[in-house]
Amino acid sequence: MPGILQKQKVAVIGISDVSGKTGTVNTGNMMHGAAARNLLYDYVNMPIRPWSEQEVEQISAECSHIVVVTANAVRPGAPDQHRFADSQQKIAENILRTDLPVVVFGLGVQHKLGKLPEKTLPKATKLMLKVFSERSKQIAVRGHFTAEYLHSIGIKNVRVLGCQSCFYDVLPSFTAPEVRKNSENIAFNYTAPNREKNSISMAVRNGFTMFGQGEAAEVELLNGNPQLFNKSLKLRKFFWRTKLTKEEYIDWLQNRFHRFYDMPSWFEKIKQYDFSFGTRFHGNMVALQSGVPALWIVHDTRTMELCDYHALPYLMLEDVEKMTDISQLLEATDYALFEKAYGENYARLYSYVDDSGIAHTMPAPESWLGNP
Predict the structure, then answer these.
(1) What domains appear along the chain, each with residue ranges and CATH number?
(2) CB contact at 8 A, 244 and 153
(3) What does pTM read for this prediction?
(4) What CA–CA distance (Å, rounded) separates 3 from 308?
(5) For residue 282, what are the CA distances in angstroms to 214, 263, 297?
(6) Confidence class of residue 221 from pLDDT cuts 50, 70 and 90?
(7) Would you say residue 369 has pLDDT above 50?
(8) Average pLDDT value for the chain
């Protein structure tokens, strides 16, 4: 922690460390939000709505900074009225009502692999990025793809730092769990059924356990409301393209599907497994931080840039879709590069947090060769 500060508390806005219980909510964001808060010495959570005058006065008097925890906020080509526009507008306007500096965690571009992103952005996103840039010494972004895009639209003060969830326990060093070649108790996660049909078929046929993060139709089915399940286009496409029957799939969900709304419950359950794989970045990170080896399946720029930065073991989705045996995934899971990169990546995050001036909980790294 830096030297004694006059104000040690910060105001946190953005992704929460707990989750709502609607099926459309991505519960994996809890990991992202909780990890950011683990770095902070003291904080107060602020809502994403227009702050009252009393709230503005209170945080201005008590807090040294505004910390913004965000993720897939930058969506090139999205319309002005996209689903995040209202919250981004409010975040920007609330910050502008204070004189506090800003510290950002986890900012990223959401985009498909293999396509160049458009330069156009929704008005609210442009305003929010402008405020971040003006109020921050540097903006933490999750990968080089995001950094290059922001540079191309004029946001220059960015720093690639990956995802703070990789440092959930705020440790300067990390020893990855051993991958057991005879692993049988397997955790699985998916994002898009129609693109991951063979992986899901493997999981169903072998009795792997599904850890859900945003499966609205699946949650409705388990809640006794099959209408959304029956109407879901993504699931209809899935069943058009697989030999798996709807009955098999439903039986699997009823017996092998879990979804959590707080981190302690998720950590406790995932510890029971030998191995985790799938396309959900934070689902696999929960496993890894619980001592369970995980393999990431890359399907978009988000998972690619995060896995590249942290040197996490991964395979491309199109390659996994050709596989039929879990042993092939276990063989591909090697943490040698991750362990080699971890210390320096931690040191970069430490430097960013310490330089920002916020009071934090991060132990100083054992050695640091200088800022990248």
Answers:
(1) 9-171+343-356 (3.40.50), 186-334 (3.40.50)
(2) no
(3) 0.93
(4) 34
(5) 12, 11, 12
(6) confident
(7) no
(8) 91
